[in-house]
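Quick one, tokens below. Sequence please?
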């Protein structure tokens, strides 16, 4: 059976060049980057060269780059780290206000929910039917005591790109003495959108290597100089004291190499993936009745095409596609026997019964036109069969 991978938004295969760059640091150059002897110094040089590479791509200073364990831990450190630093300013939870969106990844959303349980006031911004944040709603939500705003760069489920630069300008233009710090989760965008933090105007930005051809188990956190961030884990001086523990040298080296390659192939990737995504969208909407695309029709990532198929369960579609060798993801998550629709789709105003029928296709540089044709051949019959079995449409 042929195997077709269309779940690049979940994770990507490690690029061969990345494996090659990492290989010496598993055994040959295995030193602890904190050791003073030659083995350690060799590892330290590799870490700092990687930091320099990442900083150059993000257009920031090397000391503004922190390597962590995952995108999730980077998100946690960014949000909780800013809040922890407020204690030094003697700002108690009931004197602080935080803003995020209701469509964030759970790495962000659950962190804000935790802070809310600790007494912080949190505003969860809604979005329109395409998943775009309303700038007027954000402007109204800002208070004199607003200390942090977190809005994802682009949504990982439906692909909608948020107006990050406009949000940054809005926050800087506020008349309040306290300017909120601005964090964006950029996990979904590295291969397709600019990562220039000066252009974006963000104070904190998070990335994860496995989303752009790098290894799992390593994350990036950009912290603008002067942004107060205190550690949330303890036990060492590593990464400016913000992420203690022995640096994962091979993973850090692999991260820098993967990011370098993402930028190198940036234009080619956008062209290739956009053409195939549009072919998929056109084909699905023509061949499958009673379905629709979710997310913004044009202001979207090149790699994501997410659909709602009325009258079927997303999990059933996923399993049937998998039986045909096609790997995708569903907008639903099966937890303890309860099928729960995506919180993103519900916030976008999609009815719960329709949100259950969500499937996300996410493409990558390795995706081919032949693979898209195969999906368009198999998908219509799968949807039709499932509807007949359920007595649906």
């Amino acid at each position: 059976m042929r195997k077709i991978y269309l779940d690049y938004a979940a994770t990507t295969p490690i690029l061969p060049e990345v494996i090659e760059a990492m290989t010496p640091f598993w055994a040959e150059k295995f030193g602890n980057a904190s050791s003073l002897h030659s083995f350690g110094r060799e590892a330290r040089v590799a870490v700092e060269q990687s930091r320099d590479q990442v900083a150059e791509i993000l257009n920031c200073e090397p000391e503004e780059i922190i390597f962590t364990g995952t995108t999730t831990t980077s998100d946690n450190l960014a949000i909780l780290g800013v809040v922890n630093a407020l204690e030094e300013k003697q700002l108690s939870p009931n004197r602080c206000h935080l803003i995020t969106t209701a469509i964030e990844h759970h790495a962000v959303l659950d962190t804000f929910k935790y802070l809310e349980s600790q007494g912080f006031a949190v505003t969860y911004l809604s979005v329109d039917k395409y998943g775009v944040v309303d700038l007027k709603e954000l402007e109204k939500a800002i208070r004199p005591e607003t200390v942090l705003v977190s809005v994802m760069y682009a949504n990982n489920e439906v692909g909608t790109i948020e107006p990050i630069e406009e949000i940054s300008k809005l926050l800087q233009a506020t008349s309040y003495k306290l300017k909120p710090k601005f964090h964006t989760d950029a996990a979904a965008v590295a291969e397709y959108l600019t990562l220039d933090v000066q252009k974006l105007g963000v104070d904190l930005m998070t990335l994860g290597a496995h989303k752009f051809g790098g290894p799992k188990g390593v994350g990036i956190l950009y912290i603008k100089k002067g942004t107060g961030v205190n550690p949330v884990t303890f036990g060492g001086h590593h990464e400016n004291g913000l992420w203690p523990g022995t640096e994962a040298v091979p993973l850090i080296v692999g991260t820098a190499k993967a990011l370098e390659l993402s930028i190198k192939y940036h234009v080619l990737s956008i062209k290739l993936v956009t053409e195939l995504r549009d072919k998929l969208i056109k084909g699905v909407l023509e061949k499958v009745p009673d379905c629709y695309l979710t997310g913004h029709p044009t202001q979207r990532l090149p790699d994501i095409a997410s659909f709602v198929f009325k009258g079927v369960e997303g999990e059933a579609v996923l399993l049937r596609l998998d039986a045909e060798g096609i790997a995708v993801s569903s907008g639903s998550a099966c937890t303890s026997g309860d099928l729960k629709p995506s919180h993103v789709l519900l916030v976008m105003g999609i009815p719960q019964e329709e949100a259950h029928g969500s499937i996300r296709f996410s493409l990558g540089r390795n995706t081919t036109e032949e693979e898209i044709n195969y999906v368009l051949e198999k998908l219509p019959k799968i949807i039709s069969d499932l509807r007949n079995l359920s007595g649906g449409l």
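Residues 266-390 form a domain with the Aspartate Aminotransferase, domain 1 fold (CATH 3.90.1150.10). The first helix runs from residue 16 to 22.
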